[in-house]
Amino acid sequence: MNSLFRVSARNHAGLILMTVIAEAKSSGDFVSLKDVAAHMGLSQGFLEEIAMALKKAGLIKGRKGPGGGYKLAKPAAKITAEQILTALEGPIALVECNGGKCPVASHCSSKSLWSFLQKDVLASLKKTTLAKLVYAE
């Protein structure tokens, strides 16, 4: 499927994983990636890669052993969609010129459109918290 804007499987799975972990926060339980993988129909190894990136970014913390797994490192209201997606894929840029790497940037007629969209997308991702995703605030 061709699409102007496509969300990667990594970003999609990462957002779902974070919502599952946030939903379990109320019980204080750690979330097992094995259980999430079975529920989502995804590879546990794939979720482990995602969890490591989220942990490295300080969004989740882990515990090994029986009853182990992952839980949020801070309240869901303090975690934004932008933080999650950046942890998974790096800085968000719709086109390369927004990252400063474009050989025709000085005379590009579409630059203003991409800049406008970039600002809107980032603003939306920064104001969308994990709590809003989980609790539909």
The number of helical elements comes to 6
Task: Indicate the low-confidence ranges by residue numbers.
Answer: none
CATH top level class name: Mainly Alpha
CATH architecture classification: Orthogonal Bundle
Taking strands numbered 1, 2, ... along the chain, how are they ordered across the largest sheet?
Answer: 1-2
How many distinct domains?
1
Spell out the helices and strands N to C. HHHEEHHH
User: Rough shape?
Assistant: elongated
Query: What fraction strand?
Result: 5-15%
Average residue-wise pLDDT: 87
End-to-end separation in angstroms reads: 32 Å
Features:
two-stranded antiparallel sheet; mainly alpha; 137 residues; 2 strands; elongated; Arc Repressor Mutant, subunit A
Structural notes for this entry:
- The chain is mainly α and 137 residues long.
- It has a single domain (9-135), classed as Arc Repressor Mutant, subunit A (Orthogonal Bundle), CATH 1.10.10.
- Helix content is 51%, strand content 6%.
- It contains six helices and two strands.
- A two-stranded antiparallel ribbon has the order 1-2.
- A hairpin with a 5-residue loop joins strand 1 (60-63) and strand 2.
- The longest helix has 17 residues, at 9-25.
- The protein is elongated.
- The two termini are 32 Å apart.
- The relative contact order is 0.16.
